[in-house]
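Chain A, query sequence.
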Amino acid sequence: MNFQVTVLKVLVSYPDGFASLSELKRDVAILATSGREWSERTTKLAARVPELEIFGQGLVERRDGGWQITEAGRSVLARMEAQSEAAVDPQVAAPGSPAAQPALLAISGSVRRRLQRRKRRRPSSNDARLSFKAS
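Chain A, predicted structure.
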């Protein structure tokens, strides 16, 4: 499993792109134990950007007890996914063409359901901070 790609994928799954460290660790652990397919897919994506360094390139920022994906991070992830899609189907063609929409990595149904259940059970860290400040 490529940790940096997994972090980008997890962060982009949150509406504001922010996850507390505990949320991030939990989601990465789920994906890391979900089987060989996830590892193979993230390794292929990482090979498309071999110099990937999520903090050094400003793709992810540390803040408020967690990590947040930046616009640059979203852009790099979309580019990796578009290149991956084009490699699978040459008809998708060049990035920038209307058909080259970034494809979301397929996460098995059971893993996706586990992630969704856990997110529904726990308020996001932003919700917790807002309710704490309001008290």
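The chain is about 55% helix and 10% strand. The longest strand covers residues 60-63.
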